[in-house]
Design a protein that fits this description.
393 residues; alpha+beta; Thrombin, subunit H; 2 domains; 6-stranded antiparallel β-barrel; 9 helices; 16 strands; 25% helix; 23% strand; elongated
Length: 393
């Protein structure tokens, strides 16, 4: 595992009082770096106790309640305790992206988008509508999906020249992110059912379809709509087409082995836009993750107010938030890792990154306290899906 210099410094100062006077500025820089890794915005790690450092320290101390007020005399103790927190992978809850340190803040605000789409609940799985597009004469202004999901789906089908269009009643939100201007990454389960049913109704394959989605940025501005223009509709560029995944997912998981197969081996999906959705910023994908590394997940968890250990609800659910955790296990063959304390209800498709803003992958499944991330490594992705082919259902 890689151990950064500030970790080592934190461990070295087992008796903080011996170093408090001699290394004041180094101690402040140490705690600044540790707080930044934990996701707090300290500004520049310059060894000076400024407004941002004080604010970050106060937020951290609301959770730990073990440290004195931050002063130069107390900075060695702060260096040690924040270093211990980094090692433990302490979770500060969800935080608004505005309270996160750079460069992660800039990367998430420019690249991570909220997905608005439709889904199929258990009670509706055999009772969805299919519109015959050959006879459909709908002529209307293209709506927003929240205002008229039915017409939105019809226009999405029309833009693809589909003859039969499935109509789902339930709206759903999720997350995804853009890299290199045109490549959009998200989790399959949000769009899976619509693709499966549309493929069957039109006697085609899922990779030839485009799901009904809108993308909104952190300002709630519309970035993309599948219902707006057939010339600019995104096409699927990566998706697992294994026939064993040809079943309907609902909110009630009834076939355990199918569900495990789905979430373990098929979640990563990407689409490509014919035009730039954002400026062409090509952020590298990294694959040198080790257990105990600190990672971040950024996304939009729906309208639910999310908990924060300190303030209980400092990150309203309909906004871009981030959560910090520690890698607790990874499997290079399966191209997946598990992280502690990055709980992701509603944040499916969120971007998982290192502290310095390098993209690890996307978080697609999890339970309170643990999330599973599909690592994004283009060179080995096909091998990852090949591993699924060898796994008995």
């Amino acid at each position: 595992m890689r151990i950064s210099c500030f970790f080592a410094m934190a461990f070295f100062m087992l008796v903080p009082s011996e170093f408090a006077h001699a290394q004041t500025s180094k101690n402040v820089e140490c705690l600044q770096r540790n707080l930044a890794v934990l996701g707090y915005d300290v500004g520049q790690a310059d060894g000076k106790i400024g407004n941002k450092t004080n604010k970050a320290a106060s937020s951290f101390n609301l959770i730990t309640k073990i440290l004195p007020d931050l002063t130069e005399a107390a900075s060695a103790n702060w260096c040690f305790q924040t270093g211990e927190a980094v090692t433990r992978g302490d979770w500060a809850g969800y935080r608004s992206i505005y309270d996160v340190s750079s460069p992660l803040k800039e990367l998430a605000m420019s690249s991570v988008f909220q997905i608005l789409t439709v889904t199929l609940l258990e009670k509706d799985k055999d009772n969805y509508e299919v519109v015959d597009m050959v006879n459909d004469q709908t002529t209307t202004k293209v709506p927003r999906i929240r205002d008229d999901a039915r017409t939105f789906q019809i226009e999405t089908c029309r833009n693809q020249g589909l003859k039969r269009c499935p109509i789902f009643r339930t709206k759903e939100t999720g997350s995804g992110f853009v890299n290199n201007g045109t490549d959009f990454y998200t989790c399959r389960h949000m769009i899976h059912n619509w693709l499966v049913i549309a493929a069957k109704e039109n006697s085609t394959s899922i990779e030839k379809l485009s799901p009904p989605i809108e993308l909104l940025n952190y300002r709630k501005e519309l970035i993309y709509s599948s219902a707006k223009s057939k010339e600019n509709i995104m096409k699927i560029s990566k998706i697992n087409t294994d026939p064993r995944l040809d079943f309907i997912l609902t909110d009630k998981f009834t076939v355990k082995n199918q569900i495990e197969l789905f979430f373990a081996f098929s979640e990563y999906t990407s689409m490509r836009s014919p035009i730039d959705l954002i400026p062409k910023i090509n952020t590298p994908f990294v694959f040198d993750i080790a257990d105990n590394d600190i990672i971040f997940n950024s996304g939009y968890p729906g309208r639910t107010a999310l908990p924060n250990v300190a303030t209980k609800n400092n990150a309203p659910g309909d906004q871009l938030v981030t959560s910090t955790g520690k890698v607790v296990g990874h499997n290079l063959q399966q191209q997946a890792m598990a992280s502690s304390a990055v709980s992701t209800p509603g944040m499916s498709g969120g971007m998982t990154t290192t502290a310095d803003g390098k993209i690890v992958g996307l978080a697609c499944s999890g339970e309170p306290g643990v999330s599973t991330t599909n690592m994004l490594n283009e060179l080995t992705l096909e091998g990852f899906w090949g591993y699924m082919q060898e796994t008995p259902i």
